[in-house]
Structure formats: structure tokens, C-alpha cells
Amino acid sequence: MNGSILFSLFFVALFSYVSYSALGYVYLARMFPLAVGVFALVLALVNLFEDIWRLRRNIASDSGMGLSDLETDWDIAHSEVWLKAGLLIGVVIALYGGIWLIGYPLAMSIFVVLVYRFIARAKLINSCIAGMAALGFIAFVAKMLNVSWPEGLIQKLVNLPWPLG
After folding, report:
1. Region 137-164: what's the mean pLDDT?
2. In this structure, is residue 96 part of a structural domain?
3. Measured distance CA(98)–CA(150) in Å, rounded
4. Between the chain's N and C termini, which has fewer beta carbons within 10 Å?
5. Residue 123 counted as domain residue
6. pLDDT (tens digit, 9 = 90+) per residue, 41-83?
7. For residue 54, is it within any domain?
């Protein structure tokens, strides 16, 4: 049996279990896991049927004729790989430090602005719009789901207005 079929079968079994176990919850508690489980199960089944179809047609995924026919450049220097990995680790550590220092809503909004500005190389106005949209989305989720985001050290010292505090 092909490895991709085993992988697809694993996800079909996993999301079948998630969907089935969600049925045991009370009505409102089952909505989210059931919606995610059923949607993911449908995607896993589609992937399984595509894998079976490719196997029956003798289309090997290594031949470059599959759905993900992408060229790759394997000649990247190790120094560049380490540099990009270090950048990613540094960004994640800085994000967690920002959440610890100024709280989740502000840190995520500033993070979005900085990612758009310096990694995606977007214009400053577009970066600020994306950051404000992120803050608006965080505020919307907090209000609709009654979520209280983690506070930072500065938020505990300074009484910030909603949704920042």
C-alpha cells in the first residue's frame, strides 16, 4: 500500500473519531468540534480518493505528474538556511516576549504590522491597515466569544481601554 494512502487513511480515521466523539457533547458544546471534524473529514476523504485514483492510474507522485508539481531548488547554502531559521526563531521569541510584556492584542497587532512591513515588504500604510484589521478581529472575537486575552506586564500596571486592556 502506498504511503500517501496510509497517511490519508490516518486522517480519515482521526477526523471520523473527532466527529463521532463530538456527538457525545451537549448541544452547544458540540457545534465547533463537529463543524471542524466533519469539514476536515470531507477534505480527508477527498484526499484519500485522489490518492486511490492516482494509484489506479499508475501516476507516481515522484514522477512530477501529481497535483503538487513544484520545482525545488536544493542548492541553498547552509548559511542561508541557518540565517532564515534563526530569523524565524527570533521572530517567535520576540512575539512571545511582546505578549508577555504588552499583552496579546497589542503584541499581535504590532507583530502583524512588522511582518507586513519588514518581511512582506508592504507599504507602511498597508502594514498599518493590516495591523488595525488584526486588532479589530481580535476585539471582535473577544466580544463575540467572551474571550479574555492574556495580559502583559504593562497592561497590569496601566489601565488600558477595551480592547487593549
Report:
1. 82
2. yes
3. 11
4. N
5. yes
6. 999 999 999 988 888 877 554 554 455 555 666 677 888 889 9
7. yes
**Cell 458540540 -> residue:** 30
Alpha carbon distance 125, 160 (integer Å)? 25
pLDDT exceeds cutoff 90 at 135: yes
Same domain, 9 and 52: yes
User: Is residue 69 a part of any domain in this protein?
Assistant: no
The per-residue pLDDT for range 79-120, each reduced to its tens digit, is 888 998 999 999 999 999 999 998 899 999 999 999 999 989
CA torsion 46-52-57-59 (nearest 10°) is 80
Residue 31 belongs to domain spanning: 3-63
- Indicate whether 97 and 129 sit together in one domain: yes
Cell of 43: 477534505
CA distance 89 to 134: 22
